[in-house]
Amino acid sequence: MDSLQWVDQTYIQKHKSEDPNTLRAMYYPNLRLYSIHGDTSKQKAPFDAALAFLYRYGRRATMSLAIYMLSYLPLVGRFVLPAASFYTFNNAVGPIPATVIFGSGIFLPRRYLVVFLQSYFSSRSLMRELLEPYFSRIRFSKEQKRLWFRDREGLLFGFAVGFYLFLKIPLLGVLIYGIAEASTAYLITKITDPPPTPAYSGEFAESQVRWTNKHEFLHLPLANLDDHKMERNNEGQNIVKAGNLPGKKFS
């Protein structure tokens, strides 16, 4: 949250010469009002939470072990890891890069594919950990959270895998994690809308499932990621525009 406050302050400082009415809404002032505990009546007991944790990671470990063992089968074994790589990366990066990975995986030694898949799943776990301060306040259902990640999967993978590789560097990795946390706060301001106050948050989670300005944001040059202009429509709602491109609406 401190990183998010710094991002908001830096944004204001960067655009201090502009009309304040044209700037995007702030994230930190409202988000800090949300409880990190949510609705305590819906929280799992510690034992149930531990079981859910063991089930989730136990299932992943079992699937990984099964795929690795199947890769030793005669004839078809050489295709198991490339096929698993294609299935895994198809949703994240698209069919063409996934096909390239599948084709190269047939000829690469097994250990390289294992490291490749391990990096992918570890970067996913890192991304979920970095986003935990956001999701601990904005309460999504299990299905809403799944769709939220799927709609942003490619960007989140590219964001996390770079930090994962740097975190593997001895000594330097500890410092990199702090940079990753600050960068995640900035990322939040690009792939979500500013939250309303808790009193008006009823439908907010559902409205964030789809990344409404995905294509506009991904076509922005790196130097102009903060180039947002705000207008008002006939209903008085704020509309943020990236340059001359259609933007996303803020409630």
Overview of the molecule:
The protein has 251 residues and is mainly alpha-helical. 60% of the residues lie in helices and 6% in strands. It has 12 helices and 3 strands. Strands 1-2-3 form a 3-stranded antiparallel beta sheet, with no helix packed on it. Helix 4 runs antiparallel to helix 5 (95-107) and helix 9 packs antiparallel against helix 10. It is globular, with a radius of gyration of 21 Å. The two termini are 22 Å apart.
Write a concise synopsis of the structure shown:
The protein is mostly helical and 251 residues long. The protein contains twelve helices and three strands.
The helix fraction, in percent, is 55-70%
Rg on CA atoms, Å? 21 Å
Quaternary organisation = single chain
Shape, principal axes of CA atoms: globular
Number of distinct beta strands: 3
**How far from one another are the termini?**
22 Å
Largest sheet: 3 strands, antiparallel
> Strand order, biggest sheet?
1-2-3
Search tags:
251 residues; 3 strands; 60% helix; disordered C terminus
SSE map:
Layout: H1 2-14, H2 28-31, H3 46-70, H4 77-93, H5 95-107, H6 110-130, H7 132-135, H8 142-151, H9 153-167, H10 172-191, H11 204-207, H12 214-218, E1 228-232, E2 238-242, E3 245-250
Antiparallel strand pairs: 1-2, 2-3
Helix pairs in contact: 1-10, 4-5, 4-6, 6-9, 9-10
